[in-house]
Amino acid sequence: MISTVYRWILLAPTLLPLFYVEGVMYPLIAPKMFALRTLALIALALFVYLTVSRRPFFWQRLYHIETWIPAGLLFVAYVTSFFGIDFYHSFWSTFERGDGLLTFTLCVAYFYLILLSADEKFVDRFVRINAWIGSLTAIYVILQWFFMTSGLDVSLFVPASGRVGGTMGNAAFLAAYLGMTLLITGAARHLYSGVWRTYLYIGAAFQVLAIILAATRGTLLAILVVAGLALVHVSLKGSGEKRIYARRGLAVFFAFIALFVIFRGFLSNVPFEPIRRLTSISLTDATVSSRLFVWSNVLRETNGRLFRGYGAEHVDIVFNRVYDPSVLTEEWFDRSHNAFLDYLVQFGVFGLLLYLALIGAIINIGWRLFVRGDSYGPWVLGLAGVYAVQNFFVFDTVVTLWLLLAMFAIALVRERVGESSVAVFKPTIVLWVFIAGLVLLIIPVSIRPFLANLRAFEAYRYQIVDVARAAAAFRNGLNLSTYADLEYGYNAYFMYTDNQFPRLSGNDLVVAYNTTKSILEQTYARYPYDARTALYYAQVLSEVPSGILPDREALSGAIARTIELSPKRVQSWLILVNVAIDDANKYPPGSIGRKAGYVAAGDILKQYITMVPNLSEPHFVLAQLKLAVDDRVEAAAEAALGKELYRSNVKTARRAAAYYGSLEKWEDAKFFLGEVVGGDPHDYVSLFDYAKLTYVLGDPGKASQIVNRLRTEQPAILETDQSFLSAITAYEARAGGAQTR
Fold it and tell me: SS3 letters for 386-447?
């Protein structure tokens, strides 16, 4: 009985892609990570029990050197993390993905448990389950895409916008997983015949369609590369009909590529996200250029720690040093979006070499199986190839890392089934205590972090309607003494700056501020290397409720740390500018002291602009400061530079709209307000201003459309300008399209 349970526990992680839990932070990834940790600890406890009960296992498989590559990589990961930035964070990671040493350790443990326990029956069952779970995941994705495009909201399906992420929550994670299960589905074909094989092929087709709908270029490229190489090999080395079909397939393959290149311009206008993304691949594409920038600069920064690395979960340290907002569209990276580079940064050269050895070993085993005619051989070989190519553009999640290591074990088992040998351990009280300890580890490893995750979601849910309860939820979560504190700081910051500070007042706002400040104070002290925490702390300290004195000393320290850790982040410099402006505003309007303060604020901006000359936003801020000291010529020059450098950005557009509005340059103001409402459709204040400018500039029809939307979504805002409301209502009456409110 226990042996049967143990085998199913080994197979249970194959179900993780379908597993998610609503009502927690990161509901699609975090529960998968908690579940895997729990399953791994239970599997280890059962393995030890079965071992001391003289259950036979395949110990001789450990005699082969390939089986020690995962252990070697894990050892290097621990050593480099111990001498890295912060072993605590390296070990635990975060809720968002949980990719730290703990999860890596348990994935490696699963590798050895499967290697020591699996027989041919287990291998076939593993392949079958993965094939069908991959197909079910794909069906979910296809339905999710259908509901998204048709505007339907079905409670069983996670809402999606843009690219579908299925039960993984992220299109890249989803495609990476399906890219692997597609090859496993191919490996399962020999296990079925008749109608069941037909169903399997249909499932594979669903997986291909889901990968296309996810519009992840890295996985699509990986599949094309592996398929092309397979066709070339069979065309050259195959025989009979296989060679003929392969050559025909190769001709179709190259014809497809040629047609894609020829009609790329036409295809770029097709309103289908997967095709649009594929046609956008170029060195000038925003995503591609930002990735190239990150890779080249992160690689350069590794020179000082080429052998010892920075430790697990510390890629962000390097990224923050090289971050440049004029080049990058994303503010925070904790991965370089290249798994090979991530291993180099985290674990140094030896970590990278062992990671390459791991992939190489799977390729080698797949080739050996293929050469000897094993039906699994080409699919193992293809899986390793797809994984290697796509991980040049993405990075692992708990699901894909586990699946890679599990498939490595499965391939080894397939090659060396062998005979089992009986354990020689004798049951002792020490071993029974060890087994109990493994089970009890579930509490700190999974249960307490899960409870902390629930408290974080409770705080998020009640952040406006019950501020006291939200604050209590944060306190209760922190009292659990888990690694949640870092993400508590992040989430408390977003709640305060995005929602609580703009919407709350009185005692509720004070409670929200004190709660957020307290959490960030703790994480600011606990994680002195984290630029994100330092910046968030500074921003909260700069948004103080009325009646509370700003903590200028703490604010100065947080800004200084942010600039030290990530010198080109514009937010920290803008906070310095705002402090200088606040000091200047203490003087009477038009006084020498006020003007001198504005000049000092401008000097801070000029210092930043010298360092980052190609960013639009600081030029518009400087233009406003020049207006404040009546220097209209310089103001116009800075605004012209800002407009020339402008790339779609809501914050910059707001500043530009305010600048041009103050000068009554309505056409420019309208353009930037359009950018604001396009990027933030729920900014009803800007939307109302946009409607008024649209009306004034001669397009009352469009203004009426916007007003009708506001009548439905935010009617109260229309009452703030009765003159405009009367004018647009009169227009509608004249046009015969009067609308009732």
Answer: HHHHHCCCCCCCHHHHHHHHHHHHHHHHHHCCCCCECCCCCCCHHHHHHHHHHHHCHHHHHH
Neighbours of 304 (CB within 10 A): 9
Got the DSSP string for 230-280?
A: HHHHHHHH--HHHHHHHHHHHHHHHHHHHHHHHTHHHHTTSS-HHHHHHHT
Residue among 535, 475, 540 nearest 501 (CA): 540
Cα separation of 256 and 581, whole Å? 60
Full DSSP string of 559-573: HHHHHHHSTT-HHHH
Q: How confident is the model over 477-533, as pLDDT tens digits?
A: 999 999 999 999 999 999 999 999 999 989 999 999 999 999 999 999 999 999 999
Distances (CA, A) of 288 to 118, 171, 218: 42, 17, 11
> Comparing 314-323, 346-355, 516-525, which segment has the lowest mean pLDDT?
314-323
| pLDDT score of 124 | 94
Task: Give the pLDDT score at 262.
Answer: 76
- Chain centroid to CA 548: how far? 36
Domain boundaries, the chain: 64-86+120-306+314-394, 674-741
> How far is Cα 217 from Cα 310, in angstroms, rounded to an integer?
29
Query: How many other C-beta atoms lie within 10 A of the C-beta of residue 581?
Result: 20
